[in-house]
UniProtKB/TrEMBL annotation:
One of its GO terms (biological process) is SRP-dependent cotranslational protein targeting to membrane. One of its GO terms (cellular component) is nucleolus. Component of the signal recognition particle (SRP) complex, a ribonucleoprotein complex that mediates the cotranslational targeting of secretory and membrane proteins to the endoplasmic reticulum (ER). The SRP complex interacts with the signal sequence in nascent secretory and membrane proteins and directs them to the membrane of the ER. This is Signal recognition particle subunit SRP68.
Amino acid sequence: MQHGLRHGDYARYRRYCTARLRRLYKSLKFTHGRGKYTRRAITESIVTEVRFLHLVLYSAERAWSHAMEKRQLPDGPNARQRIYLIGRLRKAVKWADLFSRLCAAKGDSRTSLEAEAYAAYMNGNLLFEQDRTWDTALKNFISARAVYEELGKYGDLENQLLCRERVEELEPSIRYCRHKIGQSNLQTSDLLQIGEMEGPALDLFKTKLEAVMAEARSQQAASLTEFYWLGHKFPISNAKTRVAILKAQELEQDLHGPSADSLSAEKKLVIFDKIFTAYHEARSSIRSDLVSAGSADSVKDDLSGLDKAVSAVLAQRTMERNQLLVTIAKSKLTRRCEDKNEKVTRPEELVRLYDLLLQNTSDLSDLVSSGRDTKHEEVAFSENCAARNLAFRAQRCFYLAKSYSLAGKRTEAYVLYCRARSLAENALQKFQSFNNTDEMIKELKTLYGECRSNICIEHASAILEAEKAPENLSKKVSAISLSGGDKKVEKYLLEKLDAYESVVGDANVKAPPRIGVFPPAFQAIPRNPIILDLAYNYIDFPSLENRMKKDKKGFISRLWR
């Protein structure tokens, strides 16, 4: 689990097995010749220590992980890759059987029993992938489960937990095999519920389940010939578009069906992502058909209408997902977080989410009203979008007021709460004229009441702060000092003389104001210039020898001249 299996990274696990095998071969001096490859078989007589059993086990794991890596290809394995995949599984079964025989001869009873379960599990995986002899695969899985159930009753706690996890991972494969041989009446919803389980042993089952569901969708898609949206019917001729739309509709049933209340918010977000992927695939195939439609106007009109309908449904699901995010954020806003690492929602985050919802409603309204022939359903849908836009504006204004209230700006918060109450009242009047909007009406009534109570709170808080303002002002003025040792001061008062900004009257100001830096910092001042006489070397002065005093010399000095 520490080398990639925890996250399904089979390529990393295969590299680990290969490196481990290389170290084992080298440390055991069990290499296959130098230069020319000479295969050396592992027999009972060669196994003198446990590392020889490790060789066989890691060889089986490497072959199995290689097969699982091929199974995880983005578009699935093609025919040639599937043949290679089954060959790697056969190799894994061969090494697992050898491992079981060697453990039976050299190991104790517990090791031998666990090796038998491992070999049975590998055999079951091979038959499961080959889509044949389901009864034999079922026997292998049942025998492996029985061994792990017995082993889970003994040993230390960690070993018991591992065995129980393996039993839980084998159970879906057993149920699927029984379903294939007709011993079980599994429904599609049961298979999907099993597919949500996690574990390395379930990856083959999940790929098999995806293939079964894709085949079932392709069969059902043959009957899906039209797409209905707001009174319009659009023909669907492309098989890929049918399958993508059918997949999205199945996922929508999971969100809006009777079991939707039991789903957690995280699972709903995952389902929304799958719905977006399916609708994007449908749109890409529709637009490809539009490019290749040629000059047939009727076909182009049908494809353009279908593209518009799918885009509108995609925008609706996007709006529903953003509403779910709002619900999650509101739950984190009101409750106190017990976990210190849990992030608390701020009102500004809800303002941003409501901005997204306003953008969704405006885009959806523009998309619906862009057609030439508007039906009664489209007009009603546009009116509903306008009412939702008004309700989202009221919610956005409410949380914007809450953010101003937390910042201590009572006047702005009071005005915004009044505006939110007015918007909520107008939205409530619009929704009361519609049908099937009880939930939105209840939410708007709650918002109206909260706006009214917060208006009173802000008004009272502002009066209290106004009563205490002179006292607080005198305290803060008395706290002004020349410099002080507070290093958190951003700017001194002398640096903000040109800015109209409150320093002591604002409730948000926490640090006491400072007048200026004392002692003042050194400043550079101008000094007298340095004069350099550069012309001196270039002046030719007149000779002064005639004015110089001459020395008088005697008779003897003349002789030596």
